[in-house]
Amino acid sequence: MRGRRIVATATAAVLVAAGLAVTGGTAVAHGGGYSALIQRASYGVPHITARDFAGLGYGVGYAQAEDNICLIAESVVTVSAQRSRFFGADTENVGSDLFHQKAIDDRAAERWLVGRRDGLRAPSNEVRDQMRGFAAGYNAYLRGAQKKINDPACAGKEWVRPISELDLWRANWARMVRASSGALADGIVVAAPPAATSNGSSAGRSSTGGSGANGSGAGGSSAVGSSATVSAPRAEAVVTARDGAPAGVGSNAYGLGRGATTSGAGMLLANPHFPWDGDERFYRMRLKVPGKYDVEGAALIGDPLVEIGHNGKVAWSHTVSTARRFVWHQLALVPGDPTSYRYDGQTRKMTARTVTVQTPAGPVSRTLHDTHFGPVVVVPGRFDWTTDTAYAITDVNATNNRALDGWLAMGRAKSVGELRSVLDRRQFLPWVNVIAADRDGRALYADHSVVPRVTDSLAAACIPASFQSLYATSGQAVLDGSRSSCELGRDRDAAVPGILGPANLPTLVRDDYVTNSNDSYWLANPARPLVGYPRIIGDERTVRSLRTRLGVHQVRQRLAGTDGLPGRGFTTGRLWDVTLGNRAYGGELVRDDLVRLCEAQPTATASDGSTVDLTAACVALRRWDLRVDLGSRGSHVFTEFARAGGLRFADPFDPATPLTTPNRLAVDDPRVRTALADAVKLLDGIPLDARLGDIQSEPRGTERIPIHGGWPEAGVFNMIINQVQPGVGYPKVRHGTSYLMAVELDRDGPSGRQLLTYSQSANPNSPWYADQTRLYSGKGWDTIKFTQKQLRADPNLVTYRVGERRR
User: Fold this and answer.
1) If you ran DSSP here, which 8-state letter would residue 148 be given?
2) Which residues are catalytic?
């Protein structure tokens, strides 16, 4: 490379202290060791080049540690089952530790690494090199900065330690099971058989929970030397999470083909909605191994390669899929022995193992139970462990060791067709859809995620009658666990047993557009509905969310030139404007009817029985501009009205017109006025006509940065989730719009806009702690910097090399 050859003084000092090479120029080998060139562009975004994947991983680990060492270190504490030791033995930490210690005892991550290194049976050498390099790069930074870490979250803390490749694989395993075993972790930890009675039989256990970590039950479940407890799981938390999706995350995405863009080239919107704090933050980076891999985009912190992004010819994003990631098995227990079950007429004994974790008060132990299907899980009131019945799950992502190789292969695809072949062959996406576009103007939607093989025929034959309704409404499958014929089996085209093969998964390629906003695959493009797929993937011909409906309307209106913006069709600038247009579609549908109702009946009874004056709310709603911009007044009144359940419609959903029904406010439903009264009470002390930017913000040190966007319940596309603080407003974003990318793949190379809403670093002493957050506040952007010309044009470019000899 012949870019700007500048070495940052502070960074150079760290490198010298660590005994590493510090020079400008190109990345070179260090005697078979690690070497990477890091070019920091504006906003601290590293462009990392290395001659091999070990060096690339080293550069990523080093750069991510520079910016977010505390987040990575804490994630390692979590997957090492040491949260209770360092962060306190509360219920959440003890439960987390027990879950992760079970995975450690089971050697879950180690078993991933056994087998042929082809990226299907076991991770490839390239991916292993990246993980090895990442750990080495992180450790190199830590050696040089151990006493100089200036992030107050972990400065001087004992839990910041060198990491290993195994730590990273354990963290990767935890990410894979986030929507399956991880979502059911508390139910796995508290699952215990009914307590034994004096005559040796078993007594039924209350549906309100099992023995805690300091209780005891049959099978020797006990806690030693600690008062910490693990409470029973909340049924709503582990069962009714949105169709198996990880709670608190979501996304929007558009794949735009030649028929939707002014240039005829493909274009992509990436708009994932993820937490603004913690180790699930995204991190922007550009990674290159010349001739082998060249991708710009973002990854979750702690991961060594780009997961959402683009190369020179293809761009892709992900949205959280509605498909389920696990199935239940209803176990018929042996009378008098609640830890044995019947299978094809034979008795099988559960495997009981004692898991122990350390807390400041002493060790906590718990006996957990497994079957040949997987772990036994309890959800009180829904899936109880009684004298007759227990429930185990099969988690098809627990063996998904293919993901990093899959993303690596995605980054090498040269067209939508090649990308689809990668998805078909590898079947690696744990809980997300793919939306993509290529330089030739083709757009792709696919839910090629890892889905248990519950076909229509298997569901009909093996889901007991008492659970058929649950499957029909939620896709949650409970199979008869007493028959081998009800095992998941294998599709001929599936990458591994137990999951649906590509022929059973929804895929759509278009020349105009595809889109998804976390509803099912059905209306990825309404002109070509996807139908006939197993219910476990998602629902069809059912009501769509307001966010989904607005997402499609925005595309259609842009193509027709009826959205108030100049011209027709998309440029990256118009795509940015549409995404951050901050329309509240729910308000567009019902605000006027709500105001008329409010003005006609200006008092209402709240849920607590109190009488509420609605006059000020009526005025604020009438003057509201139907957006959630910084200057929008009264938008928070509608948001809280919608969140209180006020968006009730008088007209039914019509599957023949799914994007426009329902659309009329149920003005005669008393719950509508009750919801408005509840919203007014909740906002007591906050002016109902306040500007959104005056009451919704994100703190950065002593600075309060105004934040636009809003809740999906109000029909907002640009999702920002926060909780109201009485008398104050919304002082902290919890999750929502995170990494934003609008990229066009034209013949001169990728171009467009991108942004990380919460900024590159979580360290309040970093120069990159708040800069992109301020940029987001003003609807600004950073530019795509994929070509050397684009990168060299950056006036803030800083270049340095990191490396070491192999130890």
Assistant:
1) T
2) 251
